[in-house]
Amino acid sequence: MANKHYGMVIDTKRCIGCHTCSVACKLENNLPDKNWWNRTLTVGGEDMDTPAGVFPNLKMGFITLACQHCENPACVKVCPVGATWKDEATGIVMQDPSKCLGCRYCMVACPYTGVREFNFEEPTYATGFAVGSIDAPIHEKSTVEKCTFCAHRVVKGELPFCVEVCPARARHFGDLNDPESEVSQLVLNRSHFRLLEEKGTEPSVYFLT
Amino acid sequence: MDNEKRKDGYINRRDFLKVSGATAGVAAVVGASRRPVLRTLEEVSVQQQAANAGEQIFSGVCKPNCFSACGLNVHVRDGKIVKTSPADFPDKKFNRICLRGLSHVQRTYNPERIKYPMKRVGERGEDKWERITWDEAITLITDKWKQIRSEYGDYANSMITGSGSYGAIQNMYKRLRNLIGGTALSYDVDLGSLLGLNRVKGWEGLWVGSDEADIVNAKTFIGWGSNMTNAQIQQWHFLADAIEKGTKVIAIDPVFTILASKADEHVSIRPGSDPALILSMMQVIISENLHNVPFLLAHTVAPFLVREDTGKFLRMSDKGVEPIDGPLDAAGKPTKIDPIAVWDPATNTAVAVNSIETPALEGVYEVAGIKVHTAFELLKKEVNQYPPEVAAKLTEVPEETIHHLARVSADTPVYHYVGFGAQAYDNGVHSAHAVATLAAITGNIGYPGAHVGAQITFYTNTNPKFLAPTDSKGGTISNLVYRKVLKTGTFQGNPYALKSLLVIYGNPANTLPDTNEWINEFNASFDLVVVADMTFTDTARYADIVLPVCDWFETLDVVANSQHYHAQISEKAIEPLYESKSDADIVRMLADKMGVGEYFTKSDEEYLDEFLSSPKSEEFGINVKNLREKKRIRYMKEPFISCEGNVFLTPTRRMEFYVENPTPLASSDEPLDIEREHLPRFFPPVEAWPDNSLYKKYPLVLLSERPRFRVHSQWYDTPWLRELEPEPFVKINVKDAAARGIANHDYVEVFNDRGRAVVKAVLTEGVKPGAMVFAKGWQRGQYKEGDLSELATSKFDPFGVNSSFMDELAEVRKWNGKV
Amino acid sequence: MTTTTVNETPKKSNLPVWLVVSGLLFLLGVFAWIIQLRQGVGATSLHNLNAWGAYIAGFIFFMGLSAGMLVLGSLPILFNLPRFRPYAKLAAFVALASLVVGGLFILVDLGHPDRLWRLVRFGNLGSPMLWDLLLTVAYLIVATVFLRRLMTVKSDDALKPIALLAFFAGLADGLTAFVFATQVGREFWFSAVQPIAFFVAALASAGALLLLLMVGLKAAGYNVLECCDLAPLAGLTAATVGLGLLLNVSELVTHWFSRSTNALEIVNAMLGSPLFWVEVIAGIAAILLLLLPATRLQSGWMAAGAVLALIYLAAKRLLFVNMGFAVQNINYAGVQIAPVGGYTPGLVELGVILGLIGLFAFLLILGFNNLRLAPTARS
What interface predicted TM-score (ipTM) does this complex get? Predict the structure, then answer.
């Protein structure tokens, strides 16, 4: 069976920066307090939900930023122990906390600011118990973690949780190797960009404009 | 992408990967690869199969006052809620959840939940408590209630119900109140748009509007003071679909909202001047002959002759035509038909409406010695006061923009989406009255894409007998009026002592205007304040007794109020935590001690069914049994078009932009200016206007927005949402800040004569100069000092009886306290 | 060259005191490290947007020191440079001690030092970090053998093969630079000049430390080298410090010239960092002290020059690491995932660093006391 190349397509025309995907990620993956794998960012002024420009000529938009599951991932190349690797069958870049040395080289290597997070201390949870999916990734002190495209859901044939919940219907997920897939069609037919394309990492996340 | 695919996209989203065979693909490669491909997952999924078997999913409803009523799957493992996810609606385009709905685990298991009944031991508001038993609490409350009843009368016990739940079970409290004859303090917010729209469109329901999916049929969508993308997140995707199909978007707002950022045009209007803009648009439309004459003649009161002396419509009897006998009314009483008169230009006489094809639209006439104008003539006279060159000065909207907006509005269909921004001023009724009139003169209503309205639906197909089983009812006083009642001890000339207050589903000390006044008045007047809630809100802190209420998923409820016209069941997913009790059980205990226990002997399920029972409910099959099975049942035809077929539930069955008998929404002691209310008019906000004497001292208008991080004050202490938005802030225009030496992220003191607060300043070009905006719902303890809800005025327009949240002036200065 | 008197039995009176002091410092470091292990790397000031800091700077510094020492130790043997020859043994020993300390800097930086064995079992040869670790092991072997040979073999000719190996090992310090210079995501690091810059800095650190040691050891009565013998070392140190500063200028000019937003941000961040100014001022002062006729070759001034050169280098290394994080490639407003403001090493980090420096001093003193490392005069 041909390998898949899972990718995400985010429609910035639809995205309203509501943070639902970010919170969904926290819930589904039982993320520790203060830990965000998927952040909603305002492309505009200095603060969240503020525009760029001078009144009344203003501009404001949003992107969400998580692991870009690059085809040429900088993180995988530098990990000294293979704790982060690219799954050949799906194109998903995985991260295994149980193998991680905690050297943070992957965080240094990744050009996408802040998509990898290190558990600097013992993870804490406001609810006091594990929430989200039963097969949510584990979270270990002194290890690096990041978005897995909800691989635990993908293996069950489900969409990443952030895609399922998006109130704006701005997020799409699918196989970029399949020219008929919704994501391939969107990328084919809509103008788009990828983040930091000049870095040559070949990210698998597309932003429609 | 074409619409068909788009639609399929929704329907198949969840099954998408299954269809594409991903499971098989991954599994195969997991087995075959040399690398540790998704190995951890494979290992985990073995554990998961065992554990998943023990995971139960209940049907839940997220039911705060955001109108979305998201259907939830509530996932329970080991007796604990571990997750909420979007539940399937019969039509998946309604599947919905947002950041708040996804953080329920943190609300249910919030360590700050009230765990036991508590009795105040310090001063009110001092936040010193002593744990008591339920029995003690109920006895304390009911003993006091009985004493007050015998001393001051039934009405002296009052109850205020906030918007904290859209569930039906809360009506148990109303039943109790009616049985013991207490006074309801109504929570009067956003009624400006309700009255303004409904007086013109007719009483179709509360803020009823066409299906959101209908936006796609409009050429243009105009958002009037709407923060849709934050306050009503779930409506956005329908608008986004429409944008993809070519609908243009105009956002009219003093704030560069996210909706404005998505719009083709953002019209930055002076706060509180919306009626002037709309009147001016109508002036342009009429002067350029863009108004829809056939519609005006057939479906509005435009041709009706209005008596100059009384302001009433001219009846045929006024010119001596005897009324004829009409059919018996519903009560079996005889009726008379005395038609309203219109002018027949062919014969130059006043004739009965509907007796001729084309009555005169305009003109001033004399009939039987009575001077009359057509209603349209009066409207024209009114709007002619606001040509764009005049309105531009009032609204700070350029003349050419007004011309342009007028032409766009006349190019129907237009979806006028009436937000709650423009109506939060003293002239708020008129902003909605005006926009409904705009729809009337352009015939922009009742067919696909043509719409004027807001969008919430309160399910009204219920059984009134449930609320008042003995037919006796308590009184109702607006929360705005009640302050004066407390001060004077009288209401409408009669003695009216309010002595106790029960607060349910609400946080009035935080979410109502002028909170200092609110707290001071009730502190001085009430002998007993009881708050039933889940957490120690600002209001709970001022209570004498607090009662711990169950979380939404610890008890059964039915939620039928929503934007999507579905009744849904909210099942009990877990046992109540701590000593919390369901509202139904609290009512039962109170009722027992008040001697009306006999009315509360049935089960929750039976009472829900009893409340919901009505011919309509029967037609749609809305009862607990069906809901248990189907979870979500639609009760409106689809697509639903507001006022479809030009059916207007007004007294004249026409759009009444001229209101013959203006009636206030609630009684107050304030004088009524009937003349003003006949037509949409512009008059300045009571405070937030440059002419106001306070303007010199307080030159900034303080606006508030309903953020996505809370619903009013709910979710105020949810950790995930506080990570996203850690503390209150006020957005100030860069120039206004510079003039005051305020730098970005400085702490500033925002103040006026009513109150003050210290918050972080966020400098932005996104707020109109002269205005500031803050996100509502922070609790007192979350501010450095004070609370921004102290600043809002409790002055109100006696017609709308509406909280004028934005009609407030303030000043801001750098705060020099210790951060 | 004049014959120098060599004190083969050094006075030990001062050294035990320093041994105790450095030992105590080391214990302090161990204590700080224990705190860090218990609490997590969060005990340091590192955060998600500044994932590396003073430890990595320490690692670069000591790896460079070791490389520089190997070069300084092997050069005179390879190329018959008698004026440098006296320090060979000392340099080889310092190289060895710096390696140990440099390696420990990596260890203390790890979140999971207990998983170090994975490097052996699951090592990813593609990772520059692994290249560097392999290099460290190679250094360790080469330096040990080199030192051993220096101590036992009399003939320089016989030393040549191992010296050659040591020399190349020293040159390979550029590999450490590859840990950084290969990173497309870090604009400041991503530059082919880094391996050269690292090498220059390595020589400077070795030169400066040797100078300091020579002056210090003389004061301690350990050896009695004449001052003038330090001239070439002082010259080398000044030259490499100067070269390093020139490379800084070159970095600034190339970034500034591009005018790209990121590059200008880097320039601003550099100019705005106190470390940059410490680096520039200490560097220039060091050069002046080492070269100006009024101060050159006077023990006190020379020691001061050497210390300033070392400060210059420490600042340079810390700045280098920080500058990798100075510009966020994607810098939009959103939920805060890191503290506001830049990175300054915290107490725990300073404790650990002091401890490792203490260990370094401890190892050196131990070596001075127990091995015959003193420069020996040759006719």
Answer: 0.97
